[in-house]
Design a protein that fits this description.
26% of the residues lie in helices and 30% in strands. It is α+β, with helices and mostly antiparallel strands. The strands form 2 sheets. It has a 3-stranded antiparallel beta sheet with strand order 1-2-3. Strands 4-5 form a two-stranded antiparallel sheet.
Length: 80
């Protein structure tokens, strides 16, 4: 059985980089270690700008550029 590695470092490192390089317009990550939601948007030159950060009790509105209007409470994403 292969070790699974560190999912958090994968999510916040290689995965975000790959999504930005692929031009994926929105990347949403529930960072349970820091109890916050990270919203990466609008990649340019293969990189996302710094993410918007949401704490518990805040609404996370996914940009309509993904083709649908979605608004969730950060708690819902963190409690998954």
């Amino acid at each position: 059985m292969r070790p699974r590695g560190n999912r958090r470092s994968d999510d916040l490192g290689p995965k975000v980089e790959c999504y930005a390089q692929a031009g994926i317009p929105v990347c949403l990550i529930a960072d349970r270690k820091h109890d916050e939601v990270l919203l990466y948007t609008d990649p340019a030159d293969g990189k996302y700008p710094d993410p918007q950060r949401f704490k518990r009790g805040q609404d996370v509105a996914v940009p309509e550029s993904v083709g649908v209007r979605v608004e969730l409470l950060a708690d819902t994403l963190l409690d998954g």
